[in-house]
């Protein structure tokens, strides 16, 4: 097929997770429930942290920003998917596809960077507890979130710029429920070797650095905990980072699972189904992991919900 110029590609077709008509009501109900749970859980976390003075600490400041990023992460893809299922209209315009891709990369990168920042916060709290108030001062915390914001914005714009330079064939069906950049690369007529290398470089920089920070922080944390003489002291030290460690394992575990499943399975739909884990399930579970494992969050939520209307 003769390639079209990019300006002539006006829309894409999102094939979704399944084209079976009998599965559509089940998928609609399932994803609507997960989306509402993600919104409710993350909004309650933000309200609890902002309304309780005891939670105005660096760890909960980062947690509230993570919840905000999770709300954006799910809102970029799920409402469009639900609308497509309900209306049986799976078309997305070229401009909206770029916007969706840009915001998906932005919030995904923001999640990744904030997890790295939170790992550093736990490292300072456990390995340097006496200097914690000095090191993790409000100015540094605000700066770290601001840097995460601008780095995420840079990553999303670089991806958006790269995709905007692609030349697509007449076949514009995306076997996914949103405009995933890796799927868009598969629709390109010309050679994508350079573009794929660029994607790997961006992934190594914006993904590898936070992962390295997490690994470094928790390596030092484990060595510090092992030096604690009493078992009670070890449990207390580990409990301060247990919730964050659970979220880290869930986010990175599911994200790595996506790439492994796409490498092992030739089915493009399997990659779309695996993406649901880190883009929908993880943001939904994050606030519940923190609330179930954190006594301060539980108390703040109880006070928030028991307030008279």
Automatic annotation (TrEMBL):
Instruction: Specify whether Acyltransferase is a keyword of the entry.
Output: no
> Keywords in UniProt for this one?
Cell membrane, G-protein coupled receptor, Membrane, Olfaction, Receptor, Sensory transduction, Transducer, Transmembrane, Transmembrane helix
User: Topologically, how does it sit relative to the membrane?
Assistant: Multi-pass membrane protein
Q: Which PANTHER family match?
A: OLFACTORY RECEPTOR (PTHR48001)
**Which InterPro entries would you find in this protein's record?**
GPCR_Rhodpsn, GPCR_Rhodpsn_7TM, Olfact_rcpt
The name of this protein is Olfactory receptor
Alphabetically, the GO molecular function entries are:
G protein-coupled receptor activity; olfactory receptor activity
Q: Which family does it belong to?
A: Belongs to the G-protein coupled receptor 1 family.
Question: Where located?
Answer: Cell membrane; Membrane
**Species annotation:** Loxodonta africana (African elephant)
A Pfam family that the UniProt record links to this protein: 7tm_4
A GO CC annotation recorded here is: plasma membrane
Broad class of where this protein is predominantly found: membrane
Specify the domain of life of the species encoding this protein. Answer: Eukaryota
PROSITE patterns to which the protein is assigned, alphabetical: G_PROTEIN_RECEP_F1_1, G_PROTEIN_RECEP_F1_2
Q: Which SUPFAM superfamilies match?
A: Family A G protein-coupled receptor-like (SSF81321)
User: Where is the G-protein coupled receptors family 1 profile domain positioned along the sequence?
Assistant: 41-290
User: What stretches pass through the bilayer?
Assistant: 26-47, 59-78, 98-120, 132-154, 197-216, 237-260, 272-292
């Amino acid at each position: 097929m003769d390639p079209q110029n990019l300006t002539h590609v006006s829309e894409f077709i999102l094939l979704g997770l399944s084209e079976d008509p009998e599965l559509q009501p089940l998928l609609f109900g399932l994803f609507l429930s997960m989306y509402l749970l993600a919104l409710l859980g993350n909004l309650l976390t933000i309200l609890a942290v902002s309304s309780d003075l005891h939670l105005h600490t660096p760890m909960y400041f980062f947690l509230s920003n993570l919840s905000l990023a999770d709300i954006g992460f799910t809102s970029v893809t799920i409402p469009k998917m639900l609308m497509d299922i309900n209306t049986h209209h799976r078309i997305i315009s070229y401009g909206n596809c770029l916007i969706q891709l840009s915001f998906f990369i932005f919030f995904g990168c923001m999640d990744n960077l904030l997890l790295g920042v939170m790992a550093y916060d736990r490292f300072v709290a456990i390995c340097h507890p006496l200097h914690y108030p000095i090191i993790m001062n409000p100015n540094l915390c605000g700066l770290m979130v601001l840097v995460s914001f601008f780095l995420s914005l840079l990553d999303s714009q670089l991806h958006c710029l790269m995709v905007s330079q692609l030349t697509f064939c007449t076949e514009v069906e995306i076997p996914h429920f949103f405009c995933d950049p890796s799927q868009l690369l598969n629709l390109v007529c010309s050679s994508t070797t350079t573009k794929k290398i660029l994607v790997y470089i961006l992934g190594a920089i914006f993904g590898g650095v936070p992962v390295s920070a997490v690994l470094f922080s928790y390596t030092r944390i484990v060595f510090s905990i092992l030096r604690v003489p009493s078992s009670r002291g070890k449990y207390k030290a580990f409990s301060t980072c247990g919730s964050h460690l659970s979220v880290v394992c869930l986010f990175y575990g599911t994200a790595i699972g996506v790439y492994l499943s796409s490498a092992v399975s030739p089915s493009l739909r399997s990659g779309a189904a695996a993406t649901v884990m880190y883009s929908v399930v993880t943001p939904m579970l994050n606030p519940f992991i923190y609330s179930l494992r954190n006594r301060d969050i539980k108390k703040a939520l109880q006070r928030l919900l028991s307030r008279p209307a």
